Amino acid sequence: MFKFIHQSVEDKVIEFREVHRRISYVTPTSYLELLSMYKNILSQKRTENDTARNRLTKGLEVLAQAAIEVDNMQKKLEEDQPILERTQVEVEQKKKDIAEQTIVAEKTSAVVNVEAEKAAKQEAEVKEVKDNADATLGKALPALDAAVAKVKKIQVNDFYELKQV
User: Fold this and answer.
1) Contact, 3 vs 35, CB < 8 A?
2) Quick one: angle between helices 2-20 and 28-153, nearest 10?
3) What is the pTM of this model?
């Protein structure tokens, strides 16, 4: 094939000289360059093919490993299915329990709020009574102090005088 190509180029060089009146040469070095270029391209393509083949092989190995892992996961999922179903039932029961407890808590909270309001009212009433008592006590304390002072001034002779009257 290379011989045929080289000879056909020689024929085209002659034709090129006649048509364009330009001289071009085809030498044995050109033939050797053609062979060298073919050798380089062949080596390059072999390297590319080897790389592609290796990538394909590794990809297939990875896919095979992934298929094994998927199969194992599928088996594990099938084994865990009853546990999952049981857990779902338990979760639903817990949701119902929490909903019931929430309702009870809301009712209790309403009762507590009512009681808190009552307690606040009673506290206000008690504070009002205390304030009134403090005010009355404030008025009565000076009178008490005066009475105590007068009692302390009483002497035994004053009783005798009262007895005589």
Assistant:
1) no
2) 100
3) 0.40
φ, ψ of residue 53 in degrees (nearest 5): -65, -45
Report the 3 state secondary structure along the chain. Answer: CHHHHHHHHHHHHHHHHHHHCCCCCCCHHHHHHHHHHHHHHHHHHHHHHHHHHHHHHHHHHHHHHHHHHHHHHHHHHHHHHHHHHHHHHHHHHHHHHHHHHHHHHHHHHHHHHHHHHHHHHHHHHHHHHHHHHHHHHHHHHHHHHHHHHHHHHCCHHHHHHHHHC
The domains of the chain are located at 2-151
Looking at the predicted structure, is the pLDDT value of residue 159 above 80?
A: no
pLDDT bin (cut points 50, 70, 90) of residue 72 is very high
For residues 28 and 7, the answer to whether their CB atoms sit within 8 Å is no
One-letter amino acid at 158 equals: D
Give the whole-angstrom CA distance, residue 18 versus residue 99: 103
